[in-house]
Amino acid sequence: MVCVPYLHCILLIKTKKRIKMKKLLSLSALAVVIGILSSCNTGNKKETKLQNPVAAESKEKQIAPNEAKAKTMADLQDAFKGETTASAKYAAYSKKAEQEGNHNIALLFAAASKAEKVHANNHKSVIVELGGAVPNITPEFTVKTTGENLQDAIEGESYEVTTMYPDFLQDAANSKTQLAQISFNYAFEVEKKHQTMYRNALLALNNNTVNELPNVYYICPTCGNTYDQTPSERCGISMTGSEKFIKINSL
């Protein structure tokens, strides 16, 4: 038989052990919490340090407008050179097409040459208005057969429509240069029409149906918009009155 006082002592010892264990657990938990808080504070300090690059980036953005305007000016100069070359090249392609007996294709090249000249003059005017330097350029190109010349024209127009002018328009939007946006957009919209006209001409050449191609064109003097049929009262791009259009029906 176990003595009651003895049991009481045993229970008292166990109780004290449990209390001591709880204290140890509480201290351990507190240590963990302190560790977590310390980590958070360290993280906050790191985040504070990371704010400096953001501030530096903001300073870089402050000079971005000037860089954007410089990029737009470079785009205008490149576009001027490209359109000047295209105008001269298409004029030469027109002569070649006429020599090979493809009169209606010769008319198309002549009309496109006139339109590209309008684009070049528009770009030049914006360059001058913005205080830039108009590039000196001597167009360089090679005249081949009419079929090869048409293929070259298609590739050139495709590049302008899919890459060059979309990029230039974005640059002009970034720099908020409205005059450049207008000039680029005029050319962009017209080159899409030229691309289609050249494709139709190449198809007609391959199918021996060149005589079925349009034999008269109308050019808007404001944007270079090119019509292969009687236009409406106003240009669909610049809203210029059709009475001012340039008619191309002979070489």
From TrEMBL:
InterPro entries recorded for this chain? Ferritin-like (IPR012347), Ferritin-like_diiron (IPR009040), Ferritin-like_SF (IPR009078), Rbr2/Nigerythrin (IPR052753), Rr_diiron-bd_dom (IPR003251)
Q: Which residues form the Ferritin-like diiron domain?
A: 66-209
Q: Name one GO molecular function term.
A: oxidoreductase activity
Question: By its UniProt entry, which Pfam families does this protein fall under?
Answer: Rubrerythrin (PF02915)
- Source taxon at top rank: Bacteria
Q: PANTHER family, alphabetically?
A: RUBRERYTHRIN
Q: What is this protein called?
A: Rubrerythrin
What species does this protein belong to? Labilibaculum euxinus
